[in-house]
Amino acid sequence: MPKSFYFCKTLERLTLSDKILVDVPCQVSLPSLRELDLFCVVYKDEDSHVKLLSSCPVLKHLKVTRNRRVEDNVRTFRVEVPSLLRLDYKAGMMFREDSDMSDPFLVTDTPNLLSLHIFDTVGYSLSVWYMPHLVTVVTDELFPSEKFMRPLSSVKYLALSPFDTMVPWCDAVNNYSRLVECMIHLSEYDLLESLLVLLSKCSKLKVFLVDSDIPRWNHDPALWNQPSSIPRCLSSHLEIFEWDGYVGREDEKKIIRYILENSKYLKTAGISPNSTFSGEEKQKMEELESMHRTPTSVLLSSARMSFRY
């Protein structure tokens, strides 16, 4: 990139992609830049992206995509932008011979951030500073640390795709006191048991969406023990409950039955079968309609759930 480019006063949106070398000069100023998309670029050194971001005093939306097959010369990606409102970060497994798995992979200092979307960060840790205004968090295949989890207690909208455990999401935060909508993608049997534990931490939850991708075959049913007390959100707040990818397993049926029977303010429940269901099996799903004891719209649909975030 020409050096003069880094002093453009009128530039508001910038996309750099596909191995463009980000070689930021010592002096740089992009005073009008509000949206920045760094898609699989290569940085001259560890500090190049830091200098670039520090030159954008009004930056609102940052999107970063890193290529797992290409060395981009950055071990720890630092985002220190006080003005930032939304961060989208997708990394994948970054293979490096000198990689230290204990090093933070993403470090953020964004006190005004409202929306955080993190994808494909399997195997690496994240370090975040206080984010008191955070509203929306969407994650995919993330191993969250306790330090990462602390700022999430104030979020209102949460979408999770746990890699193999939901324990950190249940243990690190005592109460998601502002959470009103939660979507969870399930891919492992062991995640079923944690669903109600998570619900017990969400006292004001109104919308609960489950997108299940658990296979029907070659696994024994997971053990599920009914909780000793009903989660508060079920007895006082939950209005919409949807389960997509229903396969008819006994433990799965018990959890759905428990949620339907104990949701006193439920207005709409949607149960969608797995794509492998036969016509006869779909007819058997009508038994789910009798699970709820109060007038509720129960939708037995073969359509996929839309992602709400």
| Strand order across the largest sheet | 1-3-5-7-9-11-12-13-14-15-16-17
- Main sheet record: 12 strands, parallel
Contiguous low-pLDDT stretches (5 residues minimum) are: 300-309
Mean pLDDT: 80
Domain FBD: 232-302
Organism: Arabidopsis suecica (Swedish thale-cress)
Protein name: FBD domain
Write the layout of secondary structure elements.
Blueprint: E1 13-17, E2 21-22, E3 35-39, E4 42-43, H1 48-54, E5 61-65, E6 77-80, E7 86-90, E8 104-109, E9 115-119, E10 125-128, E11 136-140, H2 146-149, E12 157-160, H3 167-171, E13 181-186, H4 195-199, E14 207-212, H5 232-236, E15 240-246, H6 250-262, E16 268-273, H7 279-284, E17 297-300
Parallel strand pairs: 1-3, 2-4, 3-5, 5-7, 6-8, 7-9, 8-10, 9-11, 11-12, 12-13, 13-14, 14-15, 15-16, 16-17
Pfam family, one: FBD
Domain FBD: 232-302
InterPro entries: FBD, FBL13/AtMIF1-like, LRR_dom_sf, LRR_FXL15/At3g58940/PEG3-like
Textual characterization of the structure:
The structure is a single chain. The chain has 309 residues and is of the alpha/beta class. The chain has helices at 48-54, 146-149, 167-171, 195-199, 232-236, 250-262, 279-284, and strands at residues 13-17, 21-22, 35-39, 42-43, 61-65, 77-80, 86-90, 104-109, 115-119, 125-128, 136-140, 157-160, 181-186, 207-212, 240-246, 268-273, 297-300. Strands 1-3-5-7-9-11-12-13-14-15-16-17 form a twelve-stranded parallel β-sheet, covered by helices on one side. The chain has a three-stranded parallel β-sheet with strand order 6-8-10. Strand 16, helix 7 (279-284) and strand 17 (297-300) form a beta-alpha-beta unit. The protein is elongated. Mean pLDDT is 80; it is low at 300-309.
